[in-house]
């Protein structure tokens, strides 16, 4: 328990609470669709984002774009499923900057990053491939856990740090498979699609891991929260958009840059009394 005499000072201005100047922020999956937005948001508020991502086609491109727009961003080639790869990159960041203040775990296995054919990736559970299940859990849950372990270990030693784990609305509720019915949603370019079972299960694991680590590391001053967005519009077909939107009280999907403020809230002192929380930003979908 914290002694009353050691309580933090009265809140500073709101602008100061959100200020991330000088903070070093690792963003896994930062070259991706949402990850890049997250890196941009942190850079805009003064942090130095360091993207940890695979050497996909043009790995440094996302970092370069963030740097051009916001003046600062670095890239490290990392496979989050390998503790060795995470440790090596973490050590390089620590050598350069001396510490990591923020870890934002956004790497995830989506169809965009999976080698499996769409028919295999989106196969119904009864005929689903264990390879896809294993690959999905390996990135979404085990990889995220390894990043928490390696970077969290350094944070606990320094007795300070913030971790944000990206979950999903369907880590909270079961995906409603009716929205993927073929006559409504014609597909993910051209094939029937759905939400593969591994995905929701892995995100439920992410949310629970967040709670476990939050309580374990609270005494060391490390906060751990989850952030769970609902589906973001990315050129999906109209039938699917209509189906999903009808299950969302705000009547639409999210747009890609809509989560920047929430990420800065969780990363900054504005959320200093929050740990173990899952911030759901879903247009109200999980309320129904
Ligand atoms: N887009 C959405 O609608 C949505 C909704 C809810 C949650 N999410 C979650 O948000 C996060 C980002 O999603 P996105 O839409 O940007 O996906 P994306 O596929 O565009 O990006 C994922 C990124 O993770 C990286 N990645 C995959 N495997 C990796 C590995 N082994 N090591 C390092 N990096 C790896 C990819 O290279 C890619 O840059 C994911 O965790 C996803 O599950 C997305």
Low-confidence stretches: none
- Physical arrangement of strands within the biggest beta sheet: 3-2-1-4-5-6-7
- Give the CA-CA distance, first to last residue: 38 Å
Rg: 19 Å
CATH superfamily of the domain at 12-111 and 138-173 and 195-232 and 254-279, by name, is: NAD(P)-binding Rossmann-like Domain
Biggest sheet features: 7 strands, parallel
Mean pLDDT over the residues: 93
In DSSP terms (H or I, runs of 4 or more residues), the helix count works out at 9
Note the overall shape. globular
> What share of the residues lie within helices?
25-40%
**Count of individual beta strands:** 7
Portion in strands: 5-15%
For the record, what CATH class of the domain at 12-111 and 138-173 and 195-232 and 254-279 applies? Alpha Beta
| Helix-strand makeup class | alpha/beta
Task: Quote the CATH topology of the domain at 12-111 and 138-173 and 195-232 and 254-279.
Answer: Rossmann fold
């Amino acid at each position: 328990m914290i002694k009353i005499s050691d309580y933090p000072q009265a809140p500073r201005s709101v602008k100061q609470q959100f200020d991330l100047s000088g903070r070093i922020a690792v963003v896994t999956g930062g070259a991706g669709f949402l990850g890049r937005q997250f890196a941009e948001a942190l850079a805009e508020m003064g942090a130095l984002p360091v993207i940890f991502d695979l050497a996909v086609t043009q790995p440094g491109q996302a970092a370069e774009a963030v740097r051009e727009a916001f003046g600062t961003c670095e890239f490290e080639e990392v496979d989050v499923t390998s503790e060795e790869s995470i440790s090596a990159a973490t050590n390089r960041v620590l050598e350069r900057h001396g510490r990591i203040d923020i870890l934002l775990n956004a790497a995830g296995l989506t169809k965009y990053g999976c080698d499996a054919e769409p028919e295999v990736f989106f196969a119904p559970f009864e005929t689903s491939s264990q390879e896809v299940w294993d690959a999905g859990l390996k990135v979404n849950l085990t990889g995220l856990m390894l990043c928490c372990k390696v970077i969290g270990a350094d944070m606990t030693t320094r007795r300070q740090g913030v971790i944000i784990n990206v979950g999903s609305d369907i880590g909270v509720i079961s995906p409603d498979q009716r929205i993927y019915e073929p006559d409504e949603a014609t597909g993910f370019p051209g094939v029937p699609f759905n939400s593969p079972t591994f995905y929701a299960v892995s995100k439920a694991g992410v949310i629970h891991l967040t709670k476990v680590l939050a309580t374990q590391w609270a005494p060391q001053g490390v906060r751990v929260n989850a952030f769970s967005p609902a589906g973001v519009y990315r050129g999906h077909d109209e039938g699917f958009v209509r189906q999903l939107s009808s299950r969302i009280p705000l009547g639409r999907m999210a747009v890609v840059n809509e989560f920047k403020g929430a990420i800065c809230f969780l990363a900054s002192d504005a959320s200093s009394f929050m740990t173990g929380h899952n911030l759901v930003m879903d247009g109200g979908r999980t309320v129904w």
